[in-house]
Amino acid sequence: MSDILRLENILLNQTLKDKTQAITMAGELLVKGGYVDEHYIAEMLKREELSTTYIGNDIAIPHGTNEAKEDVKASGISVIQVPEGVDFNGEKARVIFGIAGKDNTHLEILSNIAILCSDMENVEKIVRASTKEEIMDLLGGL
């Protein structure tokens, strides 16, 4: 795996009050990791207003709008584990994947996450992971 996902991009056992806080936190991890400019967070929030980034199986994948392409410096993923869940338009997301894709790689990243998380057993492993390394191992193929 390349630098798309690093240990510092993962937060365990978070309690979030709403999807805005979840999306902002996912974006802040991408900014800290050097993947995106600060403006990308606003585009992530704008994208959520267009249609929810909740994809089912307790997973949300917030990402920027098409206009945010210039804000992306490198492809990256942030992961936030929220065991109690956070409300995404009436659905409970227990894992938030913030993604940024350089040169249209976001579709490939989205697809890989969707395939991995289509198996609820994998989602439960991510939710129950007690270390960042466990999550890295589970997501090793992304």
Automatic annotation (TrEMBL):
A GO molecular function annotation here is: protein-phosphocysteine-sugar phosphotransferase activity
A Gene Ontology biological process in which this protein takes part is: phosphoenolpyruvate-dependent sugar phosphotransferase system
The record's keywords, sorted A to Z, are: Kinase, Phosphoprotein, Phosphotransferase system, Sugar transport, Transferase, Transport
Q: Give the UniProt entry's GO cellular component terms.
A: plasma membrane
**Record bears the keyword Protein biosynthesis:** no
Q: Which residues form the PTS EIIA type-2 domain?
A: 3-142
Q: What does this protein do, in the record's words?
A: The phosphoenolpyruvate-dependent sugar phosphotransferase system (sugar PTS), a major carbohydrate active transport system, catalyzes the phosphorylation of incoming sugar substrates concomitantly with their translocation across the cell membrane. The enzyme II CmtAB PTS system is involved in D-mannitol transport.
Q: What is this protein identified as? A: Mannitol-specific phosphotransferase enzyme IIA component
Please tell me the species this chain comes from. Proteiniclasticum sediminis
